[in-house]
Amino acid sequence: MRRWTLSLLAVSAVLLLAAPGPRAAETIKIGIAGPLTGDQAAFGEMLKNGSLLAAEEWNAGGGVVLRGKKVKVELLWGDDRHDPREGVSIAHKFVNSGVAGVVGHFNSSVSIPASTVYAEAGVVQITPASTNPKLTEQGFKTVFRACGRDDQQGEVAADFIKNKLKAKSVAILHDKTTYGQGLADETRRFLAKLGLKDAFYSGIVQGDKDFTPVLTAAKQKNPDVVFFGGIHPEAILLVKQMRERLGMNAAFMSGDGVYVDEFFKIAGKAAEGSYVTFTPDQAKIQAAQGVIAKHRERFGKEVGAYTIYSYVAANLILQSIQETNTTAGARLAAHLRSKAWNTALGKIQFNARGDVLASPYVMWQVKGGKFVQLN
Hints:
It is built from 12 helices and 15 strands. By secondary structure, the protein is α/β, with parallel strands linked by helices. The chain has 2 domains: 188 residues, Rossmann fold (3-Layer(aba) Sandwich); 128 residues, Rossmann fold (3-Layer(aba) Sandwich), CATH 3.40.50.2300.
């Protein structure tokens, strides 16, 4: 009996030695999500191109070092078409595909519901562009944003309206989305703090084409400024109809969702003089020069507003994986918060919520058919 027991133990030991261990990851999968098609595809392209540049750089060097081996980066694409339901569906697909992190989404109205899926799965999400404060105020440890917040740019907009433009009357419009209405409300809140109450406040619907009824109602209040919280497709129609149909001379102002060349290229002369809040000129950031040159060579065009933000978000995830030697979301999230990062946007550090400690906003104006930063 003893001999039989020893024989069994010996066979068991051989089987254990022959059994395969945990399989090394074939690739490190990173999900990239945003409006890759449709009327906001210009922003989706920025997320796509920035992430592609980052992945190609890592793969050119053999990949990310993970558990002693270099592992190639694989990007998974998710076209949410700025639809919250599509975003949640994509989030589930990413999680089921085993992504190690997500760069996205673009729209706050999509990032916020999708963040619940990523947080429950323990997957790190870094949005390059979603600015609504609620995103990082949900208490999720794996959610980050590389950009600023609407309460930051709303304050800059309000100060400029009150103290630079010396406006006495303001009409505020928004597109009823999480981002658009959120930015409009933050601007409205800071204007009230400065003693300037809006004379008109109303919402429009994304996708509509004729805004003359609401603009006519706003015009009756004789505003010095029309502030719009929303994205460029509606901003183009608004400013054109203000100038060309109604002859409104009020200054037109919006936020980062309108900082895209399509705004002044399509709106033409009607866009001239319009104001937009965004971050300082990225072309003047020394650390960004390399990615700007590579983007020009790779895609034959200049970087967009959020191209470098997407590049940075992808690099932060991949660098964290290499430095922690794991793809576990909780450890990656803790590492992301643990230090200041040298990035193509300069030094970035996250607070406990997942927001960057500093993200200055400045005012830009359309002058001579292009955006010009105002001093």
